[in-house]
Amino acid sequence: MILLASCNSSTSDSGSGEATTSDSTATVGLDTSLFLDGALTEEPTTEDCTLSGGAETTCFRITVAGYPVDREVGPFCPATITDGPDAGGIWFDGDNLYDLDGAFIEGLAETYDDDGWKMYDDEGNVLVTETQAEFEAAARPDVDPALANHCIQGEVAWLDNGEPITSEVLIPTTPVAADEATSAQAVLGVTLDGVRIDASAPVEQILGAYTIAAFDDCGGHFNPVEGYHLHGAVGCSEVGEALDGETAQFGYALDGYAVHSPYEEGEAPDDLDACNGHTTDDLGYHYHANPASENLVIACLVGQTVESEDGGGGPPGGGAPGAGAGG
Length: 327
Prior knowledge:
mainly beta
């Protein structure tokens, strides 16, 4: 079970890049009605909870489906080095966003300046994980050497019982600001179509094993522990229309602030703070996701999070299970 927290308070950028408290009167807080039909597997309930700053409040307990209810996932890896962009998903490494097509696979040695890359056979067929055993061997921290130069992809059928992996979340019903912004956690939040938003994919370990942990065109992929989860925001899962000067909302962060899609290059306003959020009269404080190329949806959190049920403070977990290709 995963416990996530979300709590909404209004913050804004004072011009220094720091997240500070705002006087915005906009109505903020997690709205369970925004989740798409089927994104929550059970009716949300409320209960008493303690936040990381010591506040006693009430929380929603909700369970997200672990699979997007508004689309099918994939494709991930192309089949041959002649395949175009439609045959595969995307790849991002913290610096760049690539179409995961045949040309990208063929050019890996040049892209990463390393002659150790050759992810295809002499007939031009891309080497891909084809079984559950290969998928699991690639997702562990010590990637099986036999899977070097493989494009790693998973599927629902290879998860436990062949079903999506749900995540249970606790979300404060009343917003509470943190004294200071905190760095991103292993789990960053949830999308409105029922998927976990995770922190950065372990790109160094992935590339160091001569693998590519393929993302689909929505920035998500599978691993055996977490199932399908998101590492980059590209405009999927959006609900409602974007206001002028804004982008549409697609999820909630771990602290409960709304998360909106990234701005197009050159369109971001000047008032975004260090966590890529800002306050508007209509929306209150909210984040804008980083560009997917950065491999980090949200850089930091400005709100308090719920205490874990074992008494520890803050969000659970210190890192995603499995630092290998599917980690």
